[in-house]
Amino acid sequence: MHALLRGWVLCWAMLPLLAVAELRLLTEQAPPTSFLRDGQPEGYAVEVVRELIRRTGSQARIELLPWTRAYFLAKSEADTGLFSVVRTAEREALFQWVGPILQGATRFYSLKSSKLRIDSLEDAARAGTLALPKQWYTYETLQRMGFTNLYGVPSSRQMVTMLKHGRVKLIATEDLTLREELASGGLTPDQVQPHLAFMRSDYYIVFSPQTAPALVERWRGELDGMRRDGSLEGILQRWLPAARGR
Asked: Which domain of life is it from (predicted)?
């Protein structure tokens, strides 16, 4: 057989294998958008991704991993996605983007008993120690703004625990995950004082650069379909009735 013809035969033979490549879709423990319940991934973003898997006919599995590990894999491995990711200028070229699927607002919070008043970024920068997980985009943002009162911690639970025991004056987190994050450290929303919202974030599903662009485009198209037929809004209302979808 001619060498060129053999090459075409080989390419056609490989197409079924390429078509059924399994996607590895990664997320983190961030209720109510993604979390484990009885060993199974659940949450708003998980339900959106499951519906997109169904509509696109993708072979895929959803895994919960620590954020740092998941983020590294989503940048470097073929057929790998990550959700939910805030879209920023620094991250733009690192991924292929599908979304947004959700919008959240980030605020400063203090204990009500502290009687703090935060009306501006300058007030927050002078209010005392502000605890944040060091891997969060919020930490990076405030650091770039020149905040010198940041205290980096490994988890949102530690952030809340430090606030509860008066070891820090402020924390900052999103309205989407506030209730669950407070509960992890032994606080409730009625024990904290919300202050100004200083950042709004659009959340996306992302795929690694090595993932086939045609597949990513199919996901974009099906997400647009979910917006048009109201199913995306329906999922949002079940999980986050006060939140804003996109």
From this structure: Bacteria
